[in-house]
Amino acid sequence: MREAMASFVAKLTFREMCFVLGELRGWRQARDFFAWMKLQLCYEPSVVAYTILLRLYGQVGKIKLAEETFLEMLQAGCEPDVVACGTLLCAYARWGRHKDMLMFYAAVRLRDIVPSISVFNFMVSSLQKQKLHGKVIHLWEQMMEANVVPNQFTYTVVIGSYAKESQLEEAMDAYGEMKRRKFVPDEATYSLLISLNAKHGKGEQALRLYEEMKVKSIVPSNYTCASLLTLYCKNEDYSKALSLFSEMEQNKIVPDEVIYGILVRIYGKLGLYEDAQRTFEEIDRAGLLSDEQTYVAMAQVHMNVQNYDRALQVLNSVRAGNVKPSQFFYSALLRCHVAKEDVDAAEDTFRALSNYGPPDVFCCNDLLRLYMKLDYLDKARALILKMRKEDLQLDEDLCVTVIEVCCKTGTNENSDRLMEEIQENGITMKNASIVIQNEGSSSVQSPTDSSALSMTLKSLLARPGGLSSVSQLITKFAREGEEARCHT
After folding, report:
1. What does the DSSP assignment read for 118-181?
2. Which of 88, 115, 211, 393 is the most buried (most CB within 10 A)?
């Protein structure tokens, strides 16, 4: 470098040397040229030259050299400005050094230096790429405290992180502020907000966002359409769902497997079984059939018309393909075997479900109902014992089934104890549950022993709709010729 620059000694001003330094593209050349600069008489330590070198090191990932350069700048008595600090922050962000970035940012704020919005954007974007959404939100809050004015990119990133953290209110607040500043959200932002509102049960708000998209001529993505279709299905608004499919065709949006699967479910709900089957076959021909949920959706359509053999055929094709079955798949398979009253197959499926952890209350209830229907009371009792050992939290439907088993097998002490546990745990039971319990109890109690019956009647009358349940009991007793109980 000294030989190359020999003819320029004492001929370049400091400003000209800085210009040359900034035009260099190789970090080694820049390092050597800066060393030569410091030997010149006109050189004086300046934050400008150091910042240029920091930028070059940051672009190629020479973080250690950048840190050494920043330290040298401090030792030379140059006070770092907002540009120098922002340059090193961007270097950390570019190369994923998030811990160092946040530590350095804290040190910068201690000097009362507030980075520019472009630096903040670099930082939050880098954090979001690493799915550090909590840190994005924390940095956003610090931006607001420092009165940094965000731009459209900032809002887009922050709303995305709020959505990923499922913070609906904060996401909508940021969206409202974004609109007040006259920024137009992009499709991805609308998509995240629509999905977030739908998950939080804010269906009307999600649909308003979609209407805003249409007004602004923003074409929805597959993900947005899938969120809307799921919402329409949940609300049983199938006409709007089919209308959205028509809009997708007009906008030349190619449906993916998720959307096709939703369409299969909609056709099934509407009783259009041939259309559902045709759509399923189209998915298969297009080579899109790779999600077990699509298979389960088609199997459910067959089960709805009690075509259990076809449903099993569809579900068994999951194993034949490259689709790995999950707990969701085995739950559907269990429902099918239960409907066919195939105890052996149902038990095999239930055991397969147990490999994923304790089966949920719905699967337990399905199998228990099958045992009840076929009068396999020993197996029913064994399953109840297994559930209690696994400390399964019963919902109301499963509670009713368990009480029925206890009453049918004459183990009323167990049903009484279960009702006490239900009340202690705060589970709200329908009046029908108490009716079932009383029916079981009445079969073993003496007709003259009315204490338990009186307690049951008082409990029923204290509940909403209790009078109707008491009427059911009186009708039952009258039908069985138990006049004494009717008068109770």
Report:
1. HHHHHHHHHHHHTT-HHHHHHHHHHHHHTT----HHHHHHHHHHHHHTT-HHHHHHHHHHHHHT
2. 88
Which of helix, strand or coil describes residue 252?
A: coil
Chain centroid to CA 222: 17
Q: Does domain 255-354 have CATH number 1.25.40.10?
A: yes
Task: Report which of residues 382 and 403 the model is more confident about.
Answer: 382
Burial 133-147 (b: 16+ CB within 10 A, else e): bebbbebbeebeeee
Q: Write out pLDDT tens, residues 2-11.
A: 555 544 555 6
Q: What is the dihedral of CA 303, 308, 313, 315, to 10 degrees?
A: 50
At 354, which helix (H) or strand (E)?
helix 343-354
Tokens 């340059």 correspond to: 87
**Which has the minimum average pLDDT: 129-133, 208-212, 377-381, 438-442?**
438-442
Residue 198, C-beta contacts closer than 8 angstroms, at least 6 positions apart: 206, 227, 228, 230, 231, 234
Q: How far separated are the first and last CA of the chain, in Å rounded?
A: 110
Helix, strand, coil fractions of the chain, as percent rounded to 5: 70, 0, 30
Give dist(CA 318, CA 328) in Å, integer: 12
User: Are residues 226 and 262 in contact, defined by beta-carbon separation less than 8 angstroms?
Assistant: yes
Distance CA 479, CA 425 (A): 35
DSSP secondary structure string, 420-437?
HHHHHTT----HHHHHHH
Question: Tokens for 380?
Answer: 């029913």
DSSP class of residue 488 equals: -
For the domain 1-115, what is the CATH code? 1.25.40.10
Q: Classify 347 as helix, strand or coil.
A: helix
* pLDDT > 90? residue 53: yes
Record the tokens describing residue 393, joined without a space: 């939290």
Q: What is the pLDDT of residue 356?
A: 87
| Residue indicated by tokens 């790779």 | 290
